Amino acid sequence: MSNKTVDLTEGPIFKQLLRLALPIIGTSMMQMAYNLTDMLWLGRVGSDAVSSVGAAGFYVWLGMSLLLITRVGAEISVSQSLGQKNTELATRYARHALIIAGILSFVVMVFVLLFTTPLIHIFKFSSLEINANAVSYLRIVAVGFLFTFVNPTFQGVYNGMGNSKSPFYYLLIGLGLNIILDPIFIFGFLFIPAMGVSGAALATVVAQAAVFLIFMLRFVWLKEMMDPNFLRFKWNRKITQRIFKLGFPVALESSLFAIFALILARLITQWGDLPIAIQSVGAQLEALSWMTSSGFATALGSFVGQNYGARKWERIRKGYFITIGIGVALGVLVTFVFIFGGKGIFGLFFNEPQAVAMGVVYLNILAVSQVFMILEIITRGAFNGLGKTIPPSIIGIVFTGLRVPVGWMLSLPKILGMVGVWWAISLSSVVKGLVSMTWFIMVVNQLNDKSSIDL
What we know:
By secondary structure, the chain is an all-alpha fold. The protein contains 17 helices and no strands. It has helices at residues 13-45, 47-66, 68-83, 87-114, 116-121, 128-143, 145-160, 165-187, 197-221, 237-268, 274-309, 313-347, 353-367, 370-385, 390-401, 403-410, 419-444.
């Protein structure tokens, strides 16, 4: 086992969580930066271009949701195996997760390429140009799904082994490449023609492919974390079943989340195409708190996983409440920024006054739920570390699903109109945060030395 593997069952809890979380947060921020870079440059083209990417992005989101099966399965199974000091089992889980990720990526790619046009037409945009650009963007991005979807599984393996720094550096290279290529491909440079929305898609694919090649070189060829030795791979039904058992509830919830978001987006298009652009940019801005808290949640999941494998229940409790304290502080900060900085933030993305004004309203509504959204995300990470992925998925599916009828009701002309959809999103996050935390505290209080470890 490489000396890059970190033992999270001993030592100062806060320091370990922070050291593991910061690179994960940086990695998450880089994913957000990919999207924000596209939005910033395409915003200069016009809000229609942003709407096109926003529509196509829903299907990328769905694909990423499906591949959470292998990422989450790898993070939990690898960390718990290492907590039991079983490095051979950890290696087998990593091999299986990566191979399954490759297969799923190919299946999603073929499906999207076959049905690109009808998928985009679900939005029923009034502009033919938005439809055409969205179709073009989705087709190009789909070609690179192997890279886009397998990279997170590599990252999950590294996180499960307590090494979050290496994926951060590899993804940093991809981000730098994307930042350079975006304006070149969108607006053209020298012999490279201006490709607009298609150029943004191509830049993303090239950057993700570069990261994939780095992971292959470092993990497979140089064996920096373990010796994966794929030639030794033998399909194991129990390992495959456990990966799906751990990852499927999370993937199902995330997929349904994307579907519910698609329904809400379709609902809101009755007020025109601009609200879709606002939601697309607003979602990237909310990612500041979402991805930061997800970084701590992933770190907490690896921490809890190793300590669960080592049967150290008190460290699990302390780690959870330390992370919750960090999350609340983060949520308060983001709430303040959303309330008082909305106009300046949206002014970076849009030149149209109407778009900026609508963006300010959107951020003010989201500000209500930031602390509670973070509580839900961090608690999800703790549940994942225990291998109990079903409770947070139930909470997510039920209350996110309620956004659709509640959003429809609140958006009626006699109630709140368009902003009713946004209020339904925000208020559901408040409920999810409170229910998640209550449920986890009940579960963790039941942990004792007789708890079973099903590996």
